[in-house]
Write a structure and sequence with these properties.
By secondary structure, the chain is an alpha/beta fold. Helices cover 37% and strands 13% of the residues. Strands 6, 7, 8, 9, 10 and 11 form a six-stranded mixed β-sheet that branches.
């Protein structure tokens, strides 16, 4: 389910050309007390800021933290249930740029809304500030941002100067196949590309597509030194880590396979570009520069 949410977000980014959307939001006239979140990353941000009690509605994909599962559902990522939203009487609906087509509907329903952007690290941190200001918890948001920046600095300290291996991040494919083919990978300029750079690597894919589909032959041409496979929905598909690694062994000529440097990231947060991005970054740094010194 989490992977589905990320794929929907990636699809929207592709459709919008990866460009930020204009914001037409009118700030709420008072501190919001009943908040509806329209994305898992927003829900996580609100809870991270201690605003969980104010959250009254979330999407079908919002399941972290566990308390989010107790909140009323307002539909999917794009197929919003406006009747359910109205029934919750929110004084703020928090959106992503991918929801720009819904903003006119929210305006017609006289619902105050705020758009935050989670497509880059700086934007994620900026969204925490925006939510802190809007919800009158700015001090809390700044403490959270400072802690995230401290952990980012620790990651930077473990990166070995001049050693930037070629990294391939897999974001989706047919998991039911016994072999690896038609893999969607992280391209240039997006969230995962930024994570690769911050963690001390370089993206093995250097062309301009955001999320290209690459065949097995294409993977051989890229010859990544490290492969990171984002498989947060592993258990939902009834697969084991051993079975997925065996799929990669079908490409025995890949350097990363030969060197046993194929890593599966199975945690739920690896497909949600929210405040837990720092955990993605730390995991990436650990496999890219295991010899680095941690502070």
């Amino acid at each position: 389910m989490l992977a589905t949410a990320m794929v929907l977000g990636l699809t929207a980014a592709l459709r919008n050309g990866g460009k930020p959307q204009a914001r037409d939001d009118a700030p709420p006239t008072q501190v919001p007390r009943r908040i509806v979140s329209l994305a898992p990353s927003i829900t996580e941000s609100l809870f991270a800021l201690g605003l969980g009690e104010r959250v009254v509605g979330v999407t079908d994909f919002c399941d972290y933290p566990p308390e989010a599962l107790t909140k009323s559902k307002v539909g999917g990522y794009y197929d919003l249930n406006y009747e359910a939203i109205l029934a919750l009487r929110p004084d703020l609906v928090v959106c992503l740029p991918e929801h720009h087509e819904h903003l006119e509907d929210l305006d017609r329903l006289d619902l105050s809304h705020l758009t935050v952007d989670h497509r880059r690290v700086s934007m994620i941190l900026g969204s925490l500030t925006a939510l802190g200001e809007t919800c009158n918890v700015l001090d809390r948001s700044q403490i959270l941002i400072q802690e995230i920046r401290r952990r980012m600095a620790t990651v930077q300290n473990r990166v070995i100067d001049g050693q930037r291996p070629r990294i391939l991040v897999c974001v989706g494919r047919n998991m039911g196949s016994a072999t690896i083919d038609d893999v969607y990978i992280a391209g240039r300029g997006g969230f995962y590309d930024e994570m690769i750079t911050l963690a001390g690597g370089v993206n093995a894919y250097q062309d301009n597509l955001a999320f290209p589909m690459v065949t097995g032959e294409g993977l051989l041409r890229l010859q990544p030194e490290i492969i990171i496979d984002m498989v947060a929905d592993l258990s939902e598909k009834g697969l084991t880590e051993a079975a997925v690694l065996e799929q990669w062994h079908s490409l025995a000529d890949l350097q990363a396979v030969q060197d046993k440097r194929v890593f599966l990231f199975t945690e739920d947060f690896v497909v949600i570009p929210g405040p837990r991005f720092i955990q993605i970054l730390e995991k990436m740094a650990a496999v890219i520069h295991p010899e680095g010194t941690q502070q």
